[in-house]
Structure formats: structure tokens, C-alpha cells
């Protein structure tokens, strides 16, 4: 067995030198790199945490904003709904008023048309009645008809009150006849009227073919209509009143 | 076959009257040193935040050594990293150098494990004095009581000797067995033994490094001022 102390010393020095060299070139730089990376990672983690906190804060802010937007949206919707309801009611009221106006206008037009039709019908009826009455009167015995109308005139005067008859005394009366009256007839008429009034009458005679048949007595404040024309007018008036009553019903 | 306990100089340096023998183990050690230092220099020349595969491997090695130191001592690894880590790397590479044909591992000769054990012995004293001062380091021998001083001093020597003998014995025996088997059946038969020798080499490197750390930590802890144990008041 041999043990070389030189070799022991060489190996001891070699190992010590190797420890120093590896400390210088391996352990120290690698450990420093690991520490630097750990520090970097720690810094990055801290920054990431800070960023995360910022992001969470921003997220919370956005959530709050969204909530505010939702509330604002609801409020706007409610306002819009309210406005729409009001506009709808306004439109409905306007439409209703317009419809009522149209209805009233149409009703008035309908009434006017009905009245016009009725008036036209009455006019036509009157015309027809006048035609018929004229034709009838032409076929009747003229003196007999005149006598009948004169009798009805006298009866009308007799039906007046005494006050009315007294008021007619001395007043100039106009006797309107449907046909020309000759003097004897005029005298007989004047006598009959004087007899009916009880006082002499101041008569003037006038011919009006529109009366068809009969005699009418007129004064400034008195009128006694006794002719077919008057009868037709009364009938027309009665028809008009009846039509008005029908419309009212 | 030469005796594994016998070593022969590879060449001599110096004047003939004072010639210094250079053993093969020294040359192999220089080669291992050259490989380790050059490799480390190349590896750490361009360290980046985003590591390459080689840098990641180096960082893994450093991290593992640090973690082992923390697990064994509970102390910060920085003061011991270079010492313990270099011991582990050197012994591992030296043990595994037996795989190169014609190379005898430096740890298979007595001088190299003896030198490593001597360095550990001295480093225990160095770290013990640095941790607790000369007084603290010497007080550590009187624990648990002064009667133990001779035994503790003897133990501090014998444990270093045991480290030397353990490393030398395991590596030398592995090399010797492989050499014997290889002389009998040179082809393929020694391979399982070489694989076993790889495992033995790694284990011995780990054991040597961890025991060094344990002894150093023990010396440092013993040198620290003792705190009075807490007593519970009833």
C-alpha cells in the first residue's frame, strides 16, 4: 500500500480551486439568475395583482354604469310610454272630435238635404195641387164656385169677434179674386160683405189668378184668406209641420 | 493486475533531486476540473430570463442542491452551496469517469478521498468558527457535558476518516470488481456491474455531500449560544 502525500496535497488544492472556480463561474451566476427571475416573477405578479385590482375596479365601475344605464333606460321607457299614452289619448280625442264634427256636419247636410227635398216635394205638391185645383176649378161652374166662396167669406167675417168687425169699419178693404169680377158681381160681393160686417165697406177689387178660386179680403192689419190657394198653403204648412214633427221624432 | 492500494506516478516534475510525482488521479482530476470549469463558463456565459434547455438543467441542479441544503440544515443555502455542490459534482464526475476506458477514477485511489475528507474536516472547523466564533466552536465539543470532550474530538476525526474510507472503499471496490470480471469475460458481462457502479458512484457522491453538510451544520449549531429551555409554569 502506498500513500503519496504530494498527491494528497495536489488533490486538496485541486478541489479547493475547483470549488472557487465553480463558485465563480457556475453557482453564483446561476443562483443570481434564479434570484433575478424570482424577483422578476414577483414583480410581475405584483403588477398583475395591481392590474387585476384595477381591472376589477374598472369592472365594478362598468357594472355600476350598466346598472345606471339600465335604470336610465327604464326611466326613458317609462317616459316614452307615458308620452305615447298621452299622444294616443290626444289623438283619440282629436279623432273623436273630428268624427263628431264630421258626424254633425253630415247630420246637418242630411237635414238640409231632407229639408230641401221636403221643400221641393212640397213645392211640387203645391204646383201639382194648383194644377189639379186649376183644372178642377176650370171644370166647375164658375158662378156657383164664386157663390160658394163668397158664402165662406161671409161666414168667415161672421165668425170674427165684434171687436174685430168694429176695427174693420171704415177701413179700406181689398178684395182679391181669382178671376175678374164684373160690376154686378162686385156689387153683390160688396153687399154681402157690408151685410157681414154690419157697416158699409170700402172695397177695392183686384184679380189674382194664383188664387185659383175664391175671394180673399185684405186690410192693412187684417187678412181673411178664402181661396184654394190659401187652402193649399194651409195644407202645405200642415205638411211642413208634420215633416218637422217626424224629424223631431 | 496491480493492487488497487498501490499507485504509481505517471510522470515526475521538478529537478531530479526534488522530483514531484504526478499520479494519474491528479491528471484525471485536472481533466475533470477543466471540463467542469469550461462547461460552467460556457453555460453561464449567456444566461437569459427565458432559459435554454442547458440553462434550465443548470438551474435545476442549483435548485436541487439548494433544496437539499434547506432540507438537511434548515439554513439559507447560499453560504454552503458552492462547497457542497462542488463536492457532489466533482465526486459524481470522478466516480463516473470509470466508464471511460483506461481511466481510473481519482476517487478509487486513497489520496483523493483522503484529500476530500481533509477538506471537509477543515471546512467543519472553518464554518463552525465562522458561525459561533472560536469559543463557540470549542464549546461545541463540551456538549452535552465536558466529559464528552475527548470523545467529541475523536469523533470529529473519525467521522472524516469514515467518509474517506467509505468513498474510497466503494469506488475502489467497484472498479476492482469490474476489472476482475472484465479480465475474465471482457465482452458485455461487466456492463451490469458498470451500471451498478454508476448507481454506487451517484449514491456515494450524494452521501459524501450530505454528510459534509450535516457535519458542518452540526458544528455551526453547536457553536451558537445556547438558549435556556422554556419552562411551563403551572
Automatic annotation (TrEMBL), chain A:
Q: Where in the cell is it found?
A: Cell membrane; Endomembrane system
Per the record, membrane topology reads: Single-pass membrane protein
Q: Which InterPro entries match?
A: ATP_synth_b/b'su_bac/chlpt, ATP_synthase_B_chain
Q: Domain of life of the organism in this record?
A: Bacteria
User: Which CDD domains does its entry note?
Assistant: ATP-synt_Fo_b
Q: Which HAMAP family match?
A: ATP_synth_b_bprime
Which family, according to UniProt?
Answer: Belongs to the ATPase B chain family.
Q: What is this protein called?
A: ATP synthase subunit b
UniProtKB/TrEMBL annotation, chain B:
Where in the cell does this protein reside? Cell membrane; Membrane
Name the source's superkingdom. Bacteria
| GO BP terms | proton motive force-driven plasma membrane ATP synthesis
Q: Which InterPro entries match?
A: ATP_syn_F0_a_bact/chloroplast, ATP_synth_F0_asu, F0_ATP_A_sf
Q: CDD domains this protein is in? A: ATP-synt_Fo_a_6
Indicate the principal place this protein occupies in or around the cell. Answer: membrane
Q: Which UniProt keywords apply?
A: ATP synthesis, Cell membrane, CF(0), Hydrogen ion transport, Ion transport, Membrane, Transmembrane, Transmembrane helix, Transport
Give the membrane topology: Multi-pass membrane protein
The record's GO molecular-function terms, alphabetically, read: proton-transporting ATP synthase activity, rotational mechanism
Q: Does the keyword Zinc-finger apply?
A: no
A Pfam match is ATP-synt_A
Mind telling me which residue stretches traverse the membrane in this protein? Answer: 20-43, 78-96, 116-142, 163-189, 195-216
Q: One Gene Ontology cellular component annotation?
A: plasma membrane
Q: Which family does it belong to?
A: Belongs to the ATPase A chain family.
Query: Which purpose does this protein serve, as stated in its record?
Result: Key component of the proton channel; it plays a direct role in the translocation of protons across the membrane.
Q: Show the HAMAP family listed in the entry.
A: ATP_synth_a_bact
What protein name is recorded for this chain? ATP synthase subunit a
Origin organism is Rhodovulum steppense
